[in-house]
Amino acid sequence: MIIKKIAYDGQSAAEVPALLEAAGIPWNKIESDTWKRSDDNPAVRFRIAHAGDRILLHFHVEEHEVLAVAAEDNGKVWEDSCCEFFLSPDRNQVYYNFECSCIGKLLLHGGHVDTDRSNAPEAAYKAVERWSSLGSEPFESRKGDFKWDLVEIIPAEALFLHAIDRFDGRKMTANFYKCGNHLEKYHFLSWAPIDLPAPNFHCPQFFATVEFE
User: Fold this and answer.
1) pTM exceeds 0.90, yes or no
2) Helix (H, G, I), strand (E, B) or coil at 5
């Protein structure tokens, strides 16, 4: 996938959907369902661009249940309605997992897949601007027909184990996910397919190549 470079003038995360729409950034579906845990998967798509020193990421989700119990960053956001972006700058076993709930609570770790992975420093969490159409306050399970949007603005400094200041011209590997382990009909969906017997997103061998313009 080619990640296009676009002009960015400091717009807030809430303004990113309109910015990406105006720039003609295409949507990509998160629909690979290796483990088929649910017969009622959500419809999930994302679009992504960069502005040199930051990544602009927009998820759109349509699902029949939303959950947002984690009230703070570095919580169990994967148990809620959650969208995830995993990125390996060096295309190896060292990667970052940006896991963000439907109310914008973030879990950010980095490191090698086979070792204890480091929690991001507070400065990295603060550097990632987030916006959700569902707001930022926690809530218990809600059922119905929900359509929600999540935006993350990820600056290069959030890659806290690397000395990267710009994304221009770089080639990395990545995957994008949707999960919700405590939803009634829980699911594990990915953009790039995963060939493993049990659910596991921490598998950089199945990340796909992304190229930044």
Assistant:
1) yes
2) strand
